[in-house]
Amino acid sequence: EFLTENTTTEGTAASQDTVLDVKVPKNIDFTLNGDFKRIQYDNIELKNVSGSIIVRDQTIRITNLAANIFDGSAIINGSYTTREPGNPRIAFDYDLQNISFNDAFK
Fold first, then answer.
1. Each residue of 16-34: pLDDT tens digit?
2. How many CB atoms are located within 10 Å of the residue 51 CB?
3. Kindly report the CA angle at 33 between 29 and 36, in degrees rounded to 5?
4. Which stretches in the chain have pLDDT values below 70?
5. How many Å apart are CA 82 and CA 20, to the nearest integer?
6. Angstrom distance (rounded) from CA 68 to CA 36
7. Structure confidence at residue 100 (pLDDT)
8. Rounded to an integer, what distance in angstroms lies between the CA atom of residue 24 and that of residue 4?
9. pTM value?
10. Considering Cα of 22, then 85, then 81, then 6, what sign does the dihedral take?
11. Residue 59: its pLDDT value, please?
12. I want to staple 70 with a disulfide (CB 3.0 to 4.6 A). Which of 58, 81, 103, 105 is the partner?
């Protein structure tokens, strides 16, 4: 089951604390090192994108993902793990410099 809804100990669906738990498989050991001149996502353009994405031990790690975006720059590090069933963990740090919020919300 790829997407599951978190349930309470009584077996009923949790109300306000429902979590969509996207499982990271145990048997994947994958590293992607990327360096892209331009990435277009919907109406968002990222330039000079570089960094690493590592999938290992039921965890996805983003390491030193750097990009020029909204007339500024961003560096992102973080992880998403599903090692603890029913309790996925997300942790991200980011450094945004000179971002134009007018451009961000066009």
1. 566 567 899 999 999 999 9
2. 18
3. 145
4. 1-20, 103-106
5. 11
6. 11
7. 86
8. 12
9. 0.70
10. positive
11. 96
12. 103
What is the rounded CA–CA span in Å between residue 37 and residue 45? 11
Residue type at 93 in one-letter notation = D
45: tokens are: 């353009």
Classify 24 as helix, strand or coil: coil
Beta strand pairing call for 44-56 and 59-69: antiparallel
Cα torsion angle, 7, 13, 17, 22, sign: positive
Listed as own residue / partner, the contacts of 42-45 with beta carbons closer than 8 Å and 24 or more positions apart are 43/106, 44/69, 45/69
Output DSSP code: residue 14.
Answer: P
Question: For residue 103, what pLDDT is reported?
Answer: 65
